[in-house]
Amino acid sequence: MSASFVTRFAPSPTGPLHRGHAFSALTAFSAARRASGRFLLRIEDIDATRCRPAHEAAILDDLAWLGLEWEQPVRRQSEHLADYEAALETLRARGLVYRCFRTRKDLAQAALSAPHGPAEAFRGGPIHPNEEDRWLSEGKPFAWRLSLDAARETLGGFHRLRFQEKGEGPNGEHGRIEAKPERAGDVVLARKDVGVAYHLACVVDDALQGVTDVIRGADLFEACHIQRLLQALLDLPTPVYRHHRLILDASGERLAKRKGGETLGTLRAAGVTAAQLRAELGFAP
Ligand code: GLU
């Protein structure tokens, strides 16, 4: 089996797939075929509060209907929490993460008083050890956040962090790109409720699965800045990134699962064939 090109489609089973997912999955699948490489499917179901087995079943069914084939076994993130915990432990042992006890309300207030950055670009830093001990003894829930200050010190700055974009980011980003983790702030790597968060699970899995080329929508381009940093801190290889354009709806808005409306299921029920949809999205029928 060729291991020189390995890509993946990594849906979160929080709702039905739509045309945009079909485009993404077909883009990755076709690229793997062209390169005589491997196409993997990964189910990103760490958030048990939002993911449903019924959505996962529908996703597998839609992808098979589209004509895609993927390797078995499918990696289901909820079955590999120990891998993410081990990565978190590595970061914890090196003092690169800190406990964050802030609630959503605290964070919303902090964002209001710092209107220059998005709420995401949070840089709170650890709290005083006395207070931390008190809250721990009271059983107050906490998340683990990456400390950008500690990361910068460990790596001697972020200037050497680069990644290769072979597709295009939302603002035409292409080629060799300098990662700017500051843009994301001290991201949450382990959520209070779930024990892990997207960025950490994603980089661990891309490495464990030997993914060489990450193919996904341009809406995830921004994630590279922090994912590249995590790869450096965890000593993981950096894949090549190929972000693709987003499929927009008739009014020019991006398709989102939560908006309801058309899904692959409703298209299928309306009699659209997989060949028609593939052709419409620019793939051989
Ligand atoms: N699970 C993510 C999503 O459904 C995709 C993550 C990725 O491709 O890195 O948006």
If you had to describe this structure to a student in words, what would you say it looks like?
By secondary structure, this protein is an alpha/beta fold. The protein contains 10 helices and 10 strands. It has a 3-stranded parallel β-sheet. A 3-stranded antiparallel β-sheet has the order 4-5-8. Strands 6-7 form a two-stranded antiparallel ribbon. The structure holds glutamic acid (GLU). Residues 10-12, 44, 202, 216, 220 line the site of glutamic acid.
Helix and strand layout, with pairings?
Elements: E1 6-9, H1 19-34, E2 38-43, H2 53-65, E3 75-76, H3 81-93, E4 97-100, H4 104-113, H5 129-137, E5 143-146, H6 148-155, E6 162-165, E7 175-178, E8 188-190, H7 198-208, E9 213-217, H8 223-234, E10 240-244, H9 264-269, H10 274-280
Parallel strand pairs: 1-2, 2-3, 9-10
Antiparallel strand pairs: 4-5, 5-8, 6-7
Bound molecules: glutamic acid.
Gist of the model:
This protein is an alpha/beta fold. Helices cover 37% and strands 14% of the residues. The chain has helices spanning 19-34, 53-65, 81-93, 104-113, 129-137, 148-155, 198-208, 223-234, 264-269, 274-280; strands at 6-9, 38-43, 75-76, 97-100, 143-146, 162-165, 175-178, 188-190, 213-217, 240-244.
Write the H/E string, N to C.
EHEHEHEHHEHEEEHEHEHH
Output the strand order for the largest sheet.
Answer: 1-2-3
The whole-number mean of residue pLDDT values reads 92
Q: Pairing-aware structural class of the strands and helices? A: alpha/beta
How many strands?
10
Largest sheet: 3 strands, parallel
**Secondary structure: helix percent:** 25-40%
Radius of gyration: 20 Å
Q: Helical segment tally?
A: 10
Shape: globular
Spans of at least 5 consecutive residues with low confidence:
none
Question: How much of the sequence is in beta strands?
Answer: 5-15%
First and last CA, distance: 26 Å
Ligand inventory reads: glutamic acid
